[in-house]
Structure formats: C-alpha cells, structure tokens
Amino acid sequence: MTRKQAWDEGLAGRLIEAHEGADGALLPILHALHDAFGYIDRAAIAPIAAALNISKADVHGVVSFYHDFRDAPAQGPVLKLCRAESCQAMGCEDLVEHLRDAHGLTPDRGDGGGLSVETVYCLGNCALSPAALLDGAPIGRLTAAKLDALVRQAREAAP
Amino acid sequence: MKAKVYVPGDSAALSVGADRVAAAIAKEAARRGLDVTILRNGSRGLFWLEPLVEIEGAAGRLAYGPIEEEDVASLFDAHFLSGRAHPKALGRIEDHPYLKRQQRLLFARCGVTDPLSIDDYRRHGGLKGLERALAIGPAAIVEEVAASGLRGRGGAGFPAGIKWRTVAATAAAQKYVVCNADEGDSGTFADRMIMEGDPFALIEGMAIAAIAVGATKGFIYIRSEYPHAFAKFNEALAVARKAGLLGRSVLGSPHAFDIETRLGAGAYICGEETSLLESLEGKRGEVRAKPPVPAISGLFGKPTAMNNVLTFASTPWILAHGGKAYADYGMGRSRGTQPFQLAGNVRHGGLVELAFGAAIRTLVEDFGGGTRSGRPIRAVQVGGPLGAYFPTSLLDTPLDYEAMLQAKGMLGHGGIVVFDDSVNLARQARFAFEFCAKESCGKCTPCRIGSTRGFETIDKIVAGKNAEANIALVRDLCTVMTDASLCALGGLTPLPVLSALDHFAEDFAPRPNRIAAE
Known about the structure:
heterodimer; A: alpha+beta; Glutaredoxin; 4 strands; B: alpha/beta; Rossmann fold; Ubiquitin-like (UB roll); 4 domains; five-stranded mixed sheet; 23 helices
C-alpha cells in the first residue's frame, strides 16, 4: 500500500491553493487532501472554507455527505468489498460472514487490526463477482481462501 | 520475427491477473529471444475468458484464455514452435460465437484497438463522425441524432435529439456538455469498458455534442470506484489534446472545446443528473426539483447537454453512418443497439451488444449459458438496483424500453443480474429498501423515511407479525414512494420490492410456517 503522510498544515495549504481555482473546487480539494493524508483532518475545514469563501458548515456538510471521505486514517490497507446485487448473487454475504467468524472483521467498523474492510456498492466488475478493490487494485472472483491470505498478509505487515 | 501480443489492461482483466500474465509474457519472450510487442487493449467483454491473450498472425488474431502465469511457457511452445493447438486456444477471436452473434456498433473497437492510440482509432473508423459533424453544422447534427432515435442510455431513455435541440435553442454566453460516468448500478460495466477500452469514442461523442449545442467546455464525472477508468480517461484526454481533437480548435475548425474530469466520492445518488450537477459544483449531492431541466438551467445555472457515457459514445457512429442506419436496428420506439451487461451468477458473463428487442432468455441462456453455480435460474434482475426481479416465467419479455415498463420493470442501463435458486426474494426486497435508505440524499421524505420504514416492515412480515396487513402496508408505501419522491431513487425502489412480492410471494411467508410446510 502507499503510505499516507501525517497531517501537515503547510502541505494542506499548498494542495488547497493548487485546486481552489477549479470550477466546483471543493471535491477536487477534498480528494487531493484525502490522497495525501488518507483522511480529511478537522483542521482542514477552516482553511478550505476561507479559500472558497464558503462557511465551515458548508465544507463539513460536503465532507460528511460522501462515503469516501474518512475522518481518521485507515489502519493498514483498505479492502473495498462489493456487496451489491451481482456480488450477492455470487455469495458476497457469505464472505462477510466468513470475515466476521474467521477473522473478527466487520465491514465499516475500523476494527480490522491491520486491514480496513469497507462496504461498496458496485465496482463494475460484475461478470467476475464477488469483486473487491484492495488499495485500488481490483480483485475478481474473490473467495474465502483469497480473503484469508489478504487478512494474513495485512496483519503480518501491521506494526 | 516480430509478434504482437494483446493482453487486456481493462480492470476486470486486471482483477484476475492480466498484469502478471503480461509480465510473464515479456519475461518468457526475453528468455527465448523473441521480439514481442505487448499491447494493452481493452476487454472484448468475454469476461469468463479473462485474461484473454491474443496473438496477431497471418491468420488474424488468435485467442487463448483464460491464461494464467503458469500457461505462458506452454502457450509460447504451442503458438511459436509446434503450431499445435494449446488446450486454451480459442481460435480466431472474431469467430467466437459470443462475439459473432452480437451487433456491435458502439463496442466495435473495444478490445480490438490500443485505447490510447489515436492512429489506431482512426484506422478503425474513428473521427469520421466528428469530421462529418463539423462539415454539416450544429442544426444538422441535432437532426441526425433525432433521426437515429437514440435515447438516453443512462436509464431514463429520454430522446437525445430533443435534449440537444433544447440546449441548442437556449441562448446563453456559456453552455456545458456534461458526461455522467457515475455508473453505479450493480450489474453494469459498459461505461467503464468504454472509458478504459475505447475512450476516444466518448471524447469524440462529447465533442460532437458540444458543436451541436454550442458548448465550449465539458465535464465528465467519473465515480471513485473506477480508479483505472479515471486514470485511463485522463491519459486519453492528454492524447486527444495533443492530436488536436480537443482545444482551441477542434480538428482545425473554429470550434473550441475541452473536457475536464471530476472524480465522484462514493455516493450512488450522484448518478442522478441533478445530484451530479450539485456535486460538480462542489456541493452535497442533493437532487434538484425539476423543472427547470438541465438542458435549460444545468451546471452553474447554464444550459447543459448532459448524457450518459454510452449515449455520447453512440453518436460518432450515428454521424458517420447516418441516423437512419442506426434507427434500422431495434424495435418499436427503442431504436439502435443496447450494450447489455450480463452479470451475477452466470456462466458466461460479459458485454453483449444487440439491437433492442432481444428476449431476456436469449441473454441469460443463449449467451450466458445459465448459472455459474450450475443450479437452476430463479430470478433475473434487469436494470440495476432499481429494476425488477423477473421470474423464469417472464424470461421471454423483450428487452426494450416500453416492453420492460409494461412488465412493471425497466431497462435502466442494461444490466442483467442472474440469481440461482438459493436466492431469497424477501431478502432482496429488504435490501432494495436498505440500499435506498443508505444512499438517499435526504431531500424528500418518501425516500428518506419511506425506505427505512420499508425494510422495518419487511422484517415484520418475515417474522410473521401481522403479515397480511404489513404486506398491504408495504404496497401502500410503495405507491407513496413512486408518486411522491423527487427522483428515481425513491421513485423506483418500489420496482424490485413489488416484483419480489408479485412473483415470489412464497419467500415472504412467515418463517415458522415455511419451515412447517417444508
């Protein structure tokens, strides 16, 4: 996985400045910050609001609306597990149960101990369901055995 | 001897190891001292065969699949040395029955060409549509698109020609072209395949729209779940600018047009057009009340020609061959072809482009080959999470906009998800409400509150609490959501719910009774 950098006010300021001139700049700014730090730090709200001349409440409202933006860094790699209909038809909910029973992992809880599992609805890989995305790398025809390997690798790499 | 080997760079192919196969091919070629060029094409859409490796030779492109790293050495032996068939040889890919039975207009190039080569694009008929558009001018472009009968492929099915005519007729200092690439419906991947496999078709289509309506700036909103499509499309834009397809002078004409990409942030609702516009403007993705329609007051309040990826990408063919030629395909008021996407529990999942009017059964049985699990098909959901579940008795329903409506379903974006007999439709109906509750933007009450009341009531039904009265309550709730929601999320969530109740009532029987009955 790409290591995210710790919160840095100076870098955040430069990223905001780099995107503030774009049409509809708020989402591009939030993505830039999220890419750099892996989450949106609360301290970013005020400078974004100032740069775009909108209220802090407006910025917070947008950050909290979208599922992608975390409010704290993820622990370890992020596994986005598709739980939409096509993957349901191929047993993704059995995989969710397996994660819980075999590894004590519940999606969207942030208690992964080395791997963060998040629910997504559709990755556009529906002919090869169940599908997932591990730190941006696509995985098709996911199985319990493949999941076991992913969890093991992530936990071994965890500090 | 120089050999050309194709290994798809499509993210579905990557998900089953295409990058590892490409690396193994490069290594094996080096080891044998063979001069091999590896090209990363898009996918042909025969996903059960991915990674599908093709080797170009005198007899055409010979395909092998699904290829794993371990197969590479034997593949080289068979193809380059012995000439004997490899166990995974598929012959000339164009002759494959899955492809041969299709009518590929929009997907003619996908998987064939190098997605980032403008020369390859031209060699395969690219840019002819845009050249003709520049020659005939805005009014004639709109008429050609209207004559084709092309309807919005995002799901709503609104005639593209009428939309473009409205934008063209609305006077404004600035107009926009916006492409909706927030392909969030489960069971769909055609937009992604075009962005990764034939991105210039989309760029060309957006440029045609811009000239038709008088827009100089375009945006494409790509969902964040598609990181590879986002990256590939950005690369394609850079190539297109260099080639003069975008910029101050589109192909040397007086028309200026350029496209900016924007990344979504994981909100299904942003596939709804007004919500997408809010998101593009940097706001919460809350839907807007219509009217005004985006064609009159869209992005930043300006007239906006807004369509789905497939709609835009269909227009180069229409301009190149004429609206009439396109309208010759299809049935009733559904003209042209539709890229159907076959997914879920299906043996041969993939992209099947056919003229409108094919039966659901043709797709799931003839192309799909039944379920992947080998068990009987029990339900087929057409049109994404807001589409109906069809029982096997209705599989002869033709796939066109009106016939689907008549069958109390919808075609949507053309996704077809197959379920075997292990599916429980009460659970699927519950999920439809739950998904609506999770993804509701919260602006209107029927959707925001109704969805939660909906799954709570289904829980009561399957627990056997006052089942009959609660089923009536769910049906009543569905009427309210259909009639009073602001957009399609709340308005169409009743489709999967009601289809489950209508066709699979036995799944809603209270659990204790059902156990007794078994």
